Amino acid sequence: MKALKVSAVLSFFAFGLLATSAFAEIPSLPSNISPDDHTAAAAFYENLAKEETAIVERYQQELEEHEDHAFFYGRRGQDQVSHLRANIREHKHQLEEELAQAALYRKLSTAGQQVDRTSSADASAVNAAVVR
What we know:
The protein is mainly alpha-helical. The chain is built from three helices and no strands.
C-alpha cells in the first residue's frame, strides 16, 4: 500500500516536471521561415523580444501602481504584487532567451555571408588560375 502511494506521488511529480518544462520552451520558427534563412529567423526572434519587452513594461507599470496605491488593494494587493513580480521575472527570463536566439541567428547570418564572400573569392581565384 505504501509503495503504491510512493509510486503514485513520484509519477505525479515526474509528469508535472515534464509538463512544466514543455511549456517553458522558446517558440520554434514558424513554417513560413526556412531554417536556413538566418536573417529571417533573427528578425522573428527580435520581434518576439519586442513583444516580451512590451509585456514586461506593462507588468512593471501595474506593479508601480500597486506599490504606489497599496491602500486601495488591501491584503489581496500583496498577493497581486508578488504575482506581478513573478510575471516580470518570468518574462525577463523569456526575453533573455529570445535575445540570445536572435543573436545566435544574427551570428549565423553574418558567418554565412562571410562564407559566401570567401567562396566567391575562391571561385574567382580558381577561374583566374584556369584561364592562365
